[in-house]
């Protein structure tokens, strides 16, 4: 039987190893003149809340307009993008102002869906459709508190949920817990921001 001290030790080790793999703290990516890629960027990882130490669960990846645990990043270099696409490692990175680390003209933004049937889902704009995102709708916004991503428009700013995707074992979709919504079968998570090392260059575009 695993005792409390063993759980704490496991959580501590996972937190340390995860931070080491993510690169040095406080690193800032240099993207030249790309307006949407200035400032500090982060990889994003899920963790169980209400622990004395952070027990990390998995990396969160952008794919198919959603943020998923248990699936890799979906990114591509479209025809005409040029040789610059070779510089990207196709890692999911974000800032805390709603931007993904994308270099496609117009950029790509993440937001909380207000659509029926997908209400509360953490989503992102597809290439060329940035105007459809409303990350600050009704005055709501994303922000950073210590090493966590928060959202002001949910039931609580750190009430993130990982909900299993039907028919896809081991795959979870990230939601912000919204009032009067049913999240039975989902798990409470925190979203941890890990400063991205300089080797993480994001993607030309996230698909």
Q: How far is the first residue's CA from the last residue's CA? A: 44 Å
Q: Which class best fits the helix and strand makeup? A: mainly beta
Helix content: under 10%
pLDDT averaged residue by residue: 76
Number of DSSP strands? 12
Unreliable sequence segments? 1-37
Main β-sheet: number of strands, strand sense, barrel status? 6 strands, antiparallel, barrel
- Side by side, the strands of the main sheet go 1-2-3-10-9-11
- In N-to-C order, the SSE pattern is HEEEEEEEEEEEE
Could you walk me through the main structural features you see in this protein, from its secondary elements to its overall organization?
A six-stranded antiparallel beta barrel has the order 1-2-3-10-9-11. A two-stranded antiparallel ribbon has the order 4-12. A two-stranded antiparallel ribbon has the order 5-6. It is globular, with a radius of gyration of 17 Å. It is mainly β. Mean pLDDT is 76; it is low at 1-37. The chain has one helix and twelve strands; from the N terminus they run H-E-E-E-E-E-E-E-E-E-E-E-E.
Key phrases:
9% helix; two-stranded antiparallel ribbon; 207 residues; mainly beta; six-stranded antiparallel barrel
Q: Any chance you could write out the topology, listing elements then pairs?
A:
Layout: H1 4-22, E1 42-48, E2 55-63, E3 66-69, E4 75-76, E5 110-112, E6 122-124, E7 142-145, E8 148-151, E9 160-164, E10 172-176, E11 187-195, E12 205-206
Antiparallel strand pairs: 1-2, 1-11, 2-3, 3-10, 4-12, 5-6, 7-8, 9-10, 9-11
């Amino acid at each position: 039987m695993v005792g409390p001290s063993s759980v704490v030790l496991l959580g501590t080790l996972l937190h340390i190893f995860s931070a080491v793999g993510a690169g040095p703290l406080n690193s800032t990516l240099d993207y030249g003149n790309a307006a949407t890629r200035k400032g500090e960027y982060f990889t994003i990882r899920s963790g169980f809340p209400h622990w004395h130490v952070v027990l990390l669960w998995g990396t969160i990846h952008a794919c198919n307009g959603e943020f998923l645990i248990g699936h890799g990043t979906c990114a591509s270099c479209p025809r005409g993008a040029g040789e610059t696409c070779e510089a990207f490692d196709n890692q999911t990175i974000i800032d805390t102002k709603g931007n993904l680390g994308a270099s496609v003209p117009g950029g790509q933004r993440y937001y909380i869906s207000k659509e029926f049937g997908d209400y509360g889902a953490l989503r992102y704009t597809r290439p060329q459709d940035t105007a459809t995102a409303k990350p600050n709708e009704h005055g709501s916004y994303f922000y950073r508190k210590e090493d966590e991503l928060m959202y002001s428009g949910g039931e609580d700013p750190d009430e993130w949920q990982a909900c299993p995707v039907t028919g896809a074992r081991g795959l979870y979709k990230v939601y912000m817990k919204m009032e009067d919504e049913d999240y039975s079968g989902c798990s409470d998570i925190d979203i941890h921001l890990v400063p991205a090392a300089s080797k993480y260059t994001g993607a030309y575009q996230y698909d």
